[in-house]
Amino acid sequence: MKRSGLKLRILIGVAIIAFAFFKKCTNKTHNPYTDRVQNIDMTSEQEIAIGLQSAPTMMEQHGGLHPDQKLQNYIDMIGKKLVNNSMARESPYQYDFHLLADANTINAFALPGGQIFITYALHSKLTNEDQIAGVLGHEIGHVLGRHSAERIAEHEFWSTVATGASVRADAGNLVSSIGQNILLGNGREDELESDKLGVLFMINAGYNPYEMIEVMQVLKQAAGPNRTPEFQSTHPDPENRIEKIKEAIKMYTAN
């Protein structure tokens, strides 16, 4: 009896792992905005729901929204200009742009589905509208690139393999299980893809794309002399990003 029970558990475990690999191999989605084929197991509606549910927590962690409504409107205006003059306008996502009160953390990030944030600490380091557009355009790139959805699918795959748990599909369970590291943990290729898309969005909206290079200089300075070497980090070195940005500008302005 014990031996047969063990065999049954092994068979179930193998079946679950096989299902996980089968699901990963068959869940291939073509992204029309990046022309990449991705392993994604959720709809745009689920991405939007995850973003909306996660947004209040992100705001709270960064001191809430900045109290200056004029600055909020300014950020919103730039964001909407980028969306309305790019392929983002044709996407199903709901874009909202938020200036966070955090005056210490130099950062900007996007949640799946279109919730986009920039801290006042970063905003205060930028010197013109074009640079702000570069930051927001980059974050729009993360949304259209579906980078969070891609990481969630990978997380769910390994969770299934490791624990034998069924893959969760509803947004509420996903929000509680994936954590911020999955939502915001963009890797090198994600960052470079978003830089490239950000350049395109800036050009389409009439902004100077070379100002994105100045944003990279701000980030480089903020990191300080003890910045982790690129090969030890999930993010590209700002110098590497600058070279890729220059290549993107050249490509999009060639015609």
Can you tell me about this structure?
With 255 residues, the chain is mainly α. Helices cover 61% and strands 8% of the residues. It is built from eleven helices and five strands; from the N terminus they run H-E-E-H-H-E-E-E-H-H-H-H-H-H-H-H. Helix 1 packs antiparallel against helix 6, helix 2 crosses helix 7 and helix 10 runs antiparallel to helix 11 (238-252). The chain starts with a helix and ends with a helix.
Give the arrangement of secondary structure elements:
Layout lengths: L1 H25 L1 E4 L4 E4 L4 H18 L7 H16 L11 E5 L7 E3 L4 E5 H4 L5 H17 L1 H17 L7 H8 L1 H5 L3 H17 L6 H13 L14 H15 L3
Parallel strand pairs: 3-5
Antiparallel strand pairs: 1-2, 4-5
Helix pairs in contact: 1-6, 2-7, 3-5, 5-9, 5-10, 9-11, 10-11
User: Rg to the nearest angstrom?
Assistant: 20 Å
Strand content: 5-15%
Helix tally?
11
Spatial separation of the terminal alpha carbons: 74 Å
What can be said about this structure in brief?
The protein has 255 residues and is mostly helical. The chain is built from 11 helices and 5 strands; from the N terminus they run αββααβββαααααααα. A 3-stranded mixed sheet has the order 3-5-4, sandwiched between helices. A two-stranded antiparallel ribbon has the order 1-2.
